## 1
Amino acid sequence: MTTNVTNEAQISFRKLWASDTAALKAHLLRLDPESRRMRFGTPVSDYFIGQYAQNALGGHSVAHGYFVDGVLRGVAELRGFRGVAGGEAEAAFSVEKDFQNRGIGTELFGRTVLAARNRGISKLFVNFLSQNARMQAIARKFDAVVTYDSDGGHAQIEAPRANPLSMWKEALTDGQDIANSVMQTTTRALRSA
Ligand SMILES: CC(C)(COP(=O)(O)OP(=O)(O)OC[C@H]1O[C@@H](n2cnc3c(N)ncnc32)[C@H](O)[C@@H]1OP(=O)(O)O)[C@@H](O)C(=O)NCCC(=O)NCCS
């Protein structure tokens, strides 16, 4: 996917690792109050976000990030799975306000569904506040069944079984992402030298 924020901005997507914990925390802290409430389903404190970010990456989670000029501006987290075929998992998304409505959430959603599929997850859940029209719009693009109750909206996506092509697609995307990320880091270092 190619997305231009400005002519000069360097855009990249890649998986996040435990070493991205500080960047994740900074991203979540930059969410405007409404986006923060939408992300966590309720207003949360900076302290809560710090604690949350500390434990979010690694273990039983796969996270994808969207970077602009090396700064993490959007995140998709897939978590709660235990490597059991046919299992279930939950996903959560956050894109900073200045970057919303540009297709980033949709791109992160697609990568998350593929990651879920390749880890044997058959049911993917996304929970959101009832008024979250954007999240609902994205979920419907992926044929989610969306229901509402007193807790809010719940999207359920049936992930198809993994096959060699789906595994290859994720591996190829990861390889391209890493190459792109390294190239951009090098370019920024040369620019500032
Ligand atoms: C929800 C969120 C992740 C979506 O990311 P995004 O990058 O803004 O989303 P996209 O641009 O990919 O797609 C948004 C879609 O919603 C649609 N949309 C926007 N406003 C809408 C509205 N008021 N009513 C209906 N649809 C709307 C857009 O048209 C777009 O659909 P399209 O691509 O078919 O045109 C992002 O807005 C966000 O971080 N919000 C705060 C946190 C949050 O709500 N997280 C979800 C709960 S875990």
## 2
Amino acid sequence: MNKLLEVKNLEGGYSNVKILNGIDLHVNEGEFVTIIGPNGCGKSTFLKVLFGLATHHNGTVLHGNEDVSGWRTDKLVNRGIAYVPQIDNVFPSLSVKENLQMGGVNLKTKELTACIERACNMFPDLKERMNDLSASLSGGERQMLAISRALISNPKFLLLDEPTAALSPKYQQEILANIDALRTEGITVLLVEQNARLSLARSDRGYIFSGGKVVYTGSAKSILDDPNIGDYFLGLQ
Ligand SMILES: Nc1ncnc2c1ncn2[C@@H]1O[C@H](COP(=O)(O)OP(=O)(O)OP(=O)(O)O)[C@@H](O)[C@H]1O
Ligand SMILES: [Mg+2]
């Protein structure tokens, strides 16, 4: 299998504050990989360092065969990587449509229209809300909008930070099913999730972080089935 992402001994954090203490992780093309772990262990920081939003200190990040360690966000977007942050992931004072348009400022009108159409097909709830202010959306609808906006750049690799946090069980299932379905469009997924069981049930593999390090990795099934790992980490959800 081809590795789309290979991270070796990654150290990073915020300016000179070190949060990640040597992460080794890879994602194969077409995979759905979930990262879980306790609050404050560096999951979001890891995604931010990968996407050029937090500081890379040491170690290597390979995307395809290219060393993209410490690259700027705009260059990573041009390579087909997109990221949905954990919080503040829509512009509340803009309408749903305007949020989507913001994600496609570089697209021609025709392409943008096609991308907005695709978002509407993926999340029919959004179609009804196109002209509403994003501030008026429910938590689930906001996540749908944030994911749709990330997809407008036509990424091949999607990084998602807790897309189902604080959502109702119905929305949790719907959003994870939609993320899973992206794989049929050739999109590889790396997800951070507190709803560990739900997400691992759809994943190929998982990583457990603790204290800025990987403390366990294996098939999603092995994590779900292991009573020791399961009881300790999955109980956090
Ligand atoms: N902008 C920042 N500047 C300095 N330290 C930060 C910043 N953001 C987060 N941290 C610290 O980095 C550590 C890891 O935080 P991070 O957000 O990566 O954890 P997490 O695993 O995503 O947690 P959660 O499950 O609560 O989302 C925490 O100690 C946090 O206080
Ligand atoms: Mg986080």
